[in-house]
Each structure stands twice: as structure tokens, then as C-alpha cells.
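Lecture notes, unit on protein representations.

Consider one protein chain, 294 amino acids long.
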Amino acid sequence: MSSIEKTHLSRREAMAAMGAFAAACCVGTARAADPAPAVKAKASLQLYTMRDPAKQDLAGTLKKCREMGWEYVQWSGMPDLPAEKIREALDTAGLKAVACHCGVEGFEKDFDAQVKFWKTVGVQQVGPGGMMGDCQDSLEAWLKGAKRLDDLGAKLREVGLHLSFHNHNKEFEKFDGDPRCKLDILYENTKPENLHCEFDLAWIFVGHANPAEYIRKYTHRCPMVHAKDLYQKKSLTGGVQFAALGQGCLDWPSIFAAGKEAGIEYYTYEQDNCKGDIFEAAKISFDFLKKNLA
């Protein structure tokens, strides 16, 4: 073979290699441009909803919840039990706790013991039901509370747990001289990875805000929301009557659309009060979520 033929073959090989490289780049670019797969949202039950029957019969209440179709729950408002007993009760009923409500102070007092407790229960999200009592009276105190939550959230991430914050309507009030509501101040002064939004959709509505807009505002920061409905809107200080999901006045089509964009993983049904049978309301709510999350 002459040197000219060798050169010619080398060029052909080079061109082939360049073509293969370009094709690989195109495939890689196409894959990178593909949107991330949509999160398949799940229905879960805030056990605070079932607190009254659970006081009389915890095992029976949990069993009924599973028979309705609930698989995932948030542990809150239940009898005070050791972690091992909570896990045993949930396992026996065929339920999995993915979240809990608990005070911040316990972690600040004995971090390791609290982590061990909630990991035994099996939760992923832990968090208070609102701002700590000594951090509410002023903007300065609120910012100190935000700092405490941010610090704790960073520490929890290191051990595989996530901190979340559950709102009520009062977080939509404002401090004198600041145009922002308290909830926005909190999230602006904490890192998304350290403090998740556990939006209570009905309380957002009572606070004269739009639940879908808030979900979008904090997209990918709210893996779990409290799905809650109410019969009518009241003032910030007035009482409300809650309803089974889909039976009240919240705009669920817009909420589900926003949740799909924001990557909500769990819609956690909660009903603070009930005019009728809470088990019936819970079944209506499960069926509602099952239909809309399918």
C-alpha cells in the first residue's frame, strides 16, 4: 500500500470518527433538552384529621384509614407513644408515615434523640405547625425564628431528613413598616434546601391569597401540601367550616395544574373540623384525590 493510500484511508477514518462524534453529541443534546419526568403525586392523610376516633381506638382508626385506600400518612395529633410503638401500629395497619408535625425545640434540646425517634417512625419530612411561640411578636423576633429554622434545616439535611413549615392564615398578616407578609419574609430569609413549604391551601385562601399562585411562586420548594377545603371564605380572624375535598370553594383545577408544574409529591388531606362523619369525609376526599391525581 502506497503512502498516498494510507493518507486517504486516514482521512476517511477521521471523517467517520467525526461523524460518530457529532451523532453522539446530538443524542446527548437531545437527552439534556428532554424535560424531567413529571412527578407522580400521591394522596396522603394528615392523621390530625382522625384525632378524635384515634383517642378511643388507634389501631381500629388506622385500619379503617387503610381500608379506605390511604397508604401514606402524616403523624400528628395522635396518642403520645414511643417511636417503636408508632412504627408498629403503622406497620400493622399497612400505612407508611412520610411526614410528621413536631416542635423545633425538641431538636434544639436533643438533636440526636429526635432524629433517632423520627427515623424509627420512618418519616422524610419533619416540621412545626407554625412559627415558634417566642418568635412571633415582632419582625426582629420573626427573623430570629427564620434563622433558627434555617439552621435546623441545614443540620437535618446532613442526616437525611427535611424540615418543612406549615402555615395558617396569620402568616399572611404584615409587620408595621414592611410590605411583605410574614410567610414571604420567612421564605426570603431561609434557603429552599433548608426549609420546605408545607402549604396549607385552605389557610392560604382564608388569608386572602391564591393557593395556586403560591404553589407556583415557590415551585420545587413544596414537595408536600395540605389539601384542605372549606365551605366559605371568612375574615382573617373569623372561624371557618372545613369540608371534604371537592365539596368546598377552593379552585382545585388550578391548584392541581400548579402542583403539576411545581413538582408536588404529596397532597395531604386534612380536615380540622367536620359537621358529619369524619370517616365518610375522609373517604370522599380519598376518592377525590385518587381521581384527580390519576
